UniProtKB/TrEMBL annotation, chains A, B:
The lineage of its organism: Bacteria, Pseudomonadati, Pseudomonadota, Gammaproteobacteria, Oceanospirillales. InterPro entries: Homeodomain-like_sf (IPR009057), HTH-type_TetR-like_transc_reg (IPR050109), HTH_TetR (IPR001647), Tet_transcr_reg_TetR-rel_C_sf (IPR036271), Tscrpt_reg_YcdC_C (IPR013573). PANTHER family: HTH-TYPE TRANSCRIPTIONAL REGULATOR RUTR (PTHR30055). One of its GO terms (biological process) is negative regulation of DNA-templated transcription. PROSITE patterns: HTH_TETR_2 (PS50977). Gene3D superfamilies: Homeodomain-like, Tetracycline Repressor, domain 2. This is HTH-type transcriptional regulator RutR. Residues 47-66 bind DNA. It comes from the Bacteria. Coiled coil: none annotated. Keywords: DNA-binding. GO terms for molecular function: DNA-binding transcription factor activity; transcription cis-regulatory region binding.
Length: 227, 227
DNA sequence: TCACTTCTTGACCGTTCGGTCAGGATAATC
DNA sequence: GATTATCCTGACCGAACGGTCAAGAAGTGA
């Protein structure tokens, strides 16, 4: 229970182990543990002691690698923003609205699925007033949203979809997909599942795509009545 | 800055002040302050000191009224569940799907709007794995969802709406409405607003109602093309 | 083998945490 | 006015917090 009682016992790393392997493994372990702990307890509620225990290292070692709690947290946020940016490719008026929106919903859903802890970390940051991300929200992300919004509007002008407010539409897609990571505990409790299977996620993705595309009157090539 | 330096100075309560008025006012003040602080920092991250300062009372007084941090937190959760339950009236197959769904979206949206701190408190609790609410989720709330789900299915059988999965539909409505409380910082940052006006909220409500009802193929009496 | 860098960690620091408590202030009852 | 019950709060407690540091262990290149 107390700090000294756990004998640490990192399994591998008996002897030797070439150049920087230990360092990379430890860093990876610390980042993964920290993501879990920060996601669950928020920035203030998380403790370096808890992170260190999850990573199987003494607290001092975590600080040796990461410098400070704040630095560790910022590094995690930046990693999550990179993952986010990776799926934010540009679109143009020439693209097919149905394809773009479906790809949007699907990739966002997969991000929540592949990195649930990171998603929750991000959610906790926003929930607390986004003290570290305000600049990003008001700058980079805002520009990205407005660029997309303009394309949506042009699609509407061309009669490819209903003239809905594009910003509210983006928020709708974000919230609906984010929900399955952030509110996982609620989803599992209510559905009585232990976890969401790949099949469940596929079903939800299909559901969201159908409802949202139909709801916005998106004209799709392979249009078919729902189900 | 330090504990002793703030001279407390609760304005009123000079002399007398009939039976229990002070008590009620202090309790209200503490609950409001605690809701803000817990919502922002989560259960672990919140400190009684911060709550006391927000309430304009010494920390000891907060503990005098509330007994413990845990008790205070549970009480806030229960208050939020009551507000939640207040808008969960029963529905039947005989009701009009369009009316029910719109009322559902609207009341949920108003709950997020009227009690943003409570909504965020709830979100933080779920985000952290719902340690205090697991029982509620797996019991009361699950039953409520399944009862509604059955009605949705019957509507679909009668051809009043598409045969979409009713549970995913409920989650969609929850997430889309909850978003405007929980991710307020993001919404404001991206839209460049200082706050959401009543008109904004009305616009969003209309948008969500239109997209979701149309997306589920709900047959409404006063059906009109979107916008 | 030896010098040198990097890694590892227990001990420790000042601060803040949730919670207790004694005892003074105030209000209610007779 | 005396008695009693309730309210209020500064001082204090042990534990846990983020962070520092010195000193030893382990790896590296000559």
């Amino acid at each position: 229970m107390t700090e000294g009682s756990a004998p640490v016992e990192r399994g591998a790393r008996e002897q030797g182990e070439a150049n920087g392997v230990t360092r990379r493994r430890n860093e990876r372990e610390i980042l993964a543990a920290a993501e879990r702990v920060f996601a669950r307890y928020g920035y203030r509620g998380a403790s370096l002691q808890a992170i260190a225990e999850q990573a199987g290292l003494p607290k001092s070692n975590v600080l040796y690698y990461m410098g400070s709690k704040r630095g560790l947290y910022v590094r995690l946020l930046e990693r999550m923003m990179e993952r986010w940016n990776a799926l934010l490719d540009d679109i143009s008026v020439e693209d097919d609205p149905a394809e773009v929106l479906e790809a949007f919903i699907r990739s966002k859903m997969q991000l929540s699925r592949r990195h649930p802890e990171g998603s929750r970390l991000f959610a906790a940051e926003i929930l607390g007033g986004a003290p570290f991300l305000q600049e990003y929200l008001r700058g980079e992300l805002r520009d990205w949203v407005q660029a997309r919004a303009r394309v949506f509007e042009q699609w509407a002008e061309r009669g490819l979809m209903d003239p809905v407010d594009p910003v509210w539409l983006i928020f709708l897609i974000w919230s609906a997909t984010q929900h399955y990571a952030d509110f996982e505990a609620q989803v599992l409790g209510i559905t009585g599942r232990d976890e969401l299977s790949d099949a469940d996620v596929e079903e939800i993705t299909t559901f969201l795509t159908r409802v949202i595309l139909k709801g916005c009157g998106v004209r799709s090539r392979d249009a078919a009545p729902a189900r």
